[in-house]
Amino acid sequence: MNFQYLKSLLLGLSHQTLKPDEVVLVIKNIDSRDVEELCVLNGLEYVIVEQKQGFFTHALNLGKKNASGDLVIFTDDDAIPNPRWIETYLKLHQAYRNAGCISSRDKYWNPKDGSIKRTPDDAPYVKLYRWLVRSWMEDPHPLLKKYRFGVYLTKKLRIAHGPFIPSKACYSLPFRGVNMSFKRETLDALNFPEHPLLKRALGNEQYVGLQLILNGWESIYVPNNPVLHIMHQSLSRTSNNDISKEFKIMKAMYAKLINQQLAR
After folding, report:
1. Burial annotation 181-197 (CB, 10 A radius, 16+ → b, else e)
2. Per-residue pLDDT for 169 more than 60?
3. In terms of CB atoms within 10 Å, which of 31, 83, 167, 181 comes out highest?
4. pLDDT one-digit tens code per residue, 89-140
5. DSSP letter at 154?
């Protein structure tokens, strides 16, 4: 957790049109007294959980476990929500009763000049590929047919982004963990993946979304409730051997969930 980024996040949460009932912060290698002071300064009700061990998804599970309320929204310390972020999610969940998860997008924000930059999803060639190639050549897993326009798993259990991402509303596995919301009644039955080799756990959002769908709920993506993602070096990390290993672990976890469902 980056303390400087956290200041911007908590300020954004304090300026919501509908303030959160509580903010659950899972912290590691940071003084809880400093975090508590920030929460009080911004007039926020808070729960601080210190993570003693584990990696990213362990923190997510700790946050899930300690959160209360009917709607749970996830974000990162390097994000800044728009002023109607919570209010919009509440209205969407009221409108889409069978949507256990509703997610939205992030936009890159440069704090040096205040400009908003394109994300890789906004690149014209990426959009063209998703329309002309992916929609015809990378079919979704049979259990996820209606998710083909959003984020889905292919027949080979690869994560794919369909042509409606990031610009149109659609059925979709959670897009990114920095901006996703869950009805509490669905979240209680879900868990983020934990494994001793999963440090970044890329695809953990889709793992949770898959559980949700296999439990009979729907997952929806909307483009109009973004968060600003503060630009920094880790946002543009490239793949390496460790990431490749993590993808293989995640693929095995997806397969296990699906096989358990088919065996019922």
Report:
1. bbbeebbeebbbbbeee
2. yes
3. 181
4. 999 999 999 999 999 999 999 989 999 998 999 999 999 999 999 988 899 9
5. B
Total Cβ atoms within 10 A of residue 42: 18
The pTM score is 0.94
If phi > 0 it is left, if psi is from -120 to 50 it is alpha, else beta; for residue 58 that is: alpha
DSSP code, position 155: T
User: Which whole number is the average pLDDT over 7-22?
Assistant: 97
The strand ranges marked E within the chain are 23-27, 46-50, 71-74, 79-81, 99-103, 106-110, 115-117, 151-153, 159-161, 170-171, 180-183, 218-221, 227-230
Are 139 and 187 within 8 A, CB to CB? no
Tell me how far the alpha carbon of residue 107 is from its chain's centroid.
Answer: 13
| Mean pLDDT, residues 71-79 taken together | 97
CATH code for the domain in which residue 132 is found:
3.90.550.10
- What one-character-per-residue DSSP string does 40-62 give? HHTT--EEEEE--S--HHHHHHH
What total number of domains does the chain contain? 1
pLDDT recorded at residue 3: 79
* Strand arrangement, sheet containing 227-230: 79-81, 227-230, 106-110, 115-117
Give Cα separations from 163 to 11, 143, 170 (angstroms). 34, 19, 10
Give the dihedral of Cα atoms 249, 253, 255, 257; nearest 10 deg. Answer: 180
The backbone torsions φ and ψ at residue 206, rounded to the nearest 5 degrees and listed phi first, read: -70, -30
Structural domain boundaries enclosing 255: 3-262
